[in-house]
Amino acid sequence: MDSLAKLQNWHRCLLLSAAVLAAPGACMAQLGGANRAADLLKSIGMVKPTFTRAPDFTLRDIGGGLVSLASYRGSFVLLNFWATWCEPCREEMPSMEILSRHFGGQGLTLLAVNQRESAGKVASYMRAHGLNFPAPLDSDGRVSAAYRVFGIPVSYVIDANGNSVGLKSGPRDWASRDVIDLFRKLVGETSGVSPDGSRQLEPATPLPKALRATAGALTLRSQQDAGAEVLAKLPPGEEVVPLGKAFGAGEFWYMVRSKNGAVGWVRDAEVIEAPAASKNNSSIYPPR
């Protein structure tokens, strides 16, 4: 064997040895990141799941398209299991919409897997309540079984490497300051950058108890956009309950719930805080 051939063989051996030695290090780094995320998630009441690798799946969504968990690798995923008939699920949905909009798919994606309901029913519910995150349809319960879902709502956090790092049984306020700050920390540690600056958070100030239009009727829209679909036009003077506040399309918007239960977005510039006398009237806060 000539000198050049020997040199090439030695080069191949060195490359192979380096790859073998690096692989355990890469695995340990992934494992360390998963443990770090699990520890952080404990601060918002989530526990570490009993399985590490999140089962992959591909499901149809309400529009007939395919949603695959694997396509979100490189990003955190909040994977929620729910149904329209589930009252605790319904209670947490508005806060999930706010969380989803805060990140805008930048480092965190929300997937709400619906259990055994038709596309039409789920689409109608989401449209009526101003929900815009993906809703894959687990028509046969296969994915729920893979995730050992025995009651709903249940939410998993899946990290950028496809590991399940957090589990929450029951509803939660996903738009609370501690939750949003926690996910910002996780996303920042993973990507090294902050979420898209076009999605801004309002300073942490308490929400008003009730809002009403500054003048005339109040328009509820499906998204934070003046050109978005109109969900409802409320009569002058009708008060709404604010569920959250976020920045979109160059201005601040409130997510609100009307007296008849409609949930949508209204421009901050079009509402004012309701008088104190009205805020004490519990009839504008019907239990949902």
Structural description of this entry:
The chain is α+β, with helices and mostly antiparallel strands and 288 residues long. It is 31% helix and 24% strand. The protein has two domains: 41-191, Glutaredoxin (3-Layer(aba) Sandwich), CATH 3.40.30; 211-284, SH3 type barrels. It has six helices and 14 strands. The chain has a five-stranded mixed beta sheet with strand order 5-4-3-6-7. It has a three-stranded antiparallel beta sheet with strand order 11-12-13, covered by helices on one side. It is globular and about 55 Å long.
- Main sheet: which strands, in order across? 5-4-3-6-7
Q: Overall 3D geometry?
A: globular
How many beta-strand segments? 14
User: What is the CATH superfamily label of the largest domain?
Assistant: Glutaredoxin
Which segments are poorly predicted (pLDDT under 50) over 5 or more consecutive residues?
A: 4-29, 192-204, 279-288
Furnish the topology, listing elements before pairings.
Elements: H1 3-41, E1 58-60, E2 66-68, E3 76-82, H2 87-103, E4 108-115, H3 119-128, E5 137-138, H4 142-146, E6 154-158, E7 164-169, H5 177-191, E8 211-213, E9 218-221, E10 230-234, E11 241-248, E12 251-257, E13 263-267, E14 271-273, H6 276-279
Parallel strand pairs: 3-4, 4-5
Antiparallel strand pairs: 1-2, 3-6, 6-7, 8-14, 9-10, 11-12, 12-13
Give a brief rundown of this model:
The protein has 288 residues and is α+β, with helices and mostly antiparallel strands. The chain is built from 6 helices and 14 strands.
